[in-house]
Design a protein that fits this description.
By secondary structure, the chain is α+β, with helices and mostly antiparallel strands. The protein has a single domain (7-269), classed as Clavaminate synthase-like (Double-stranded beta-helix), CATH 3.60.130.10. It is 22% helix and 27% strand. It has 6 helices and 15 strands. The protein has helices at 30-43, 55-63, 133-138, 142-148, 158-168, 211-224, and strands spanning 7-10, 17-20, 45-48, 83-88, 113-120, 128-132, 152-156, 179-183, 185-187, 194-196, 203-206, 231-234, 240-245, 249-253, 262-269. The chain has a 7-stranded mixed sheet, with helices on one face. The relative contact order is 0.26. The structure holds succinic acid. Succinic acid (SIN) binds next to strand 5 and strand 14.
């Protein structure tokens, strides 16, 4: 769809495209990268098949789009702190990303995007769902848009990461986690589109509203911003890659395949301060 260096086929009216004709294991040209960046902002999440990325090609791909971030709770394996292992098997007590969220929105500068490569996937199940926050914003009534304009929300990592660590049997006493205040409605720095930027994992409260009113508004937004009509659902195969614009989508990973194995790595690209 309109690109010189690869094919992009749109999956839903609001977000998601399958990309074919690119080998992500090899260095990419400037033209390919310009078009990929454009496709990411346009389609919000891109899917690729049959990409046997190794650690180096995975990190190189991420670095084309910015500096790589180290996860505040789970640094990667020895020598590769920027790699986030995404792994579930018969011993897992939880998986990463089971609830709707935008990656690390508790950071002052939340990630631009994340690139997930899975090597091993269950026979069926383990899909990832993505929801367009630009489409969700567009679907708000004009009155609600006006009401939300100028509000800010506190995002904190503490509740989520401590709960995860407790389930994993990790003693995290003495650790501290990032928190940040972001606008409830942010403007995408590249497309200029407005979008909803709150999520049930990291958002704690709306600063300018009384507690109960803010809670009710957040509950409404969580439901509204993840409705099926703004979603796309990705079915993984071994060596599939998903690259999402973390500024404009929320996502959720399904754990319907226990006790099977689902395994790979994510790299996360640093972003800028939401405005
Ligand atoms: C995540 O990055 O939140 C996990 C996504 C997935 O495993 O599909």
């Amino acid at each position: 769809m309109g690109y010189e260096t690869f094919e992009a086929s749109r999956l839903t009216p609001h977000l998601g495209a399958n990309i074919s004709g690119l080998d992500l294991t090899r260095p990419l040209s400037n033209r390919q990268l310009d078009e990929l960046h454009d496709a990411l902002v346009t389609h919000e999440v891109l899917f690729f098949r049959d990409q046997s990325l190794d650690i180096e090609s995975h990190k190189r791909l991420g670095r084309y789009f910015g500096e790589l971030a180290i996860h505040p709770n789970t640094p990667g394996p020895e020598g590769h702190p920027e790699l986030l292992p995404i792994h579930a098997d018969a011993h897992s007590k939880r998986i990463a990303g089971e609830n709707w969220h935008s990656d690390v929105s508790c950071s002052e500068e939340p990630p631009l995007g994340s690139i997930l490569h899975l090597k091993e996937v269950p026979e069926v199940g383990g899909d990832t769902l993505f929801a367009s926050q630009t489409a969700a914003y567009d679907a708000l009534s004009p009155r609600m848009k006006t009401y939300l304009e100028g509000l800010t929300a506190l995002h904190a990592g503490e509740r989520n990461y401590r709960r995860n660590n407790e389930k994993d049997g990790i003693d995290d006493r003495g650790r501290s986690y990032p928190s940040a205040v972001h606008p409830v409605i942010r403007t995408h720095p590249v497309s200029g589109r407005k979008l909803i930027f709150v999520n049930e994992v990291f958002t704690m409260r709306i600063n300018e509203l009384p507690e109960d009113e803010g809670r009710a508004v957040l509950e409404f937004l969580y439901k509204h911003s993840t409705k099926p009509d703004v979603q796309v659902r990705f079915k993984w195969q071994p060596n599939s890659v998903a690259f999402w614009d973390n500024r404009s989508v929320q996502h959720l990973a399904l754990w319907d395949y226990y006790p099977q194995v689902r395994s790979g790595f994510r790299v996360t690209i640093k972003g800028d301060r939401p405005h």
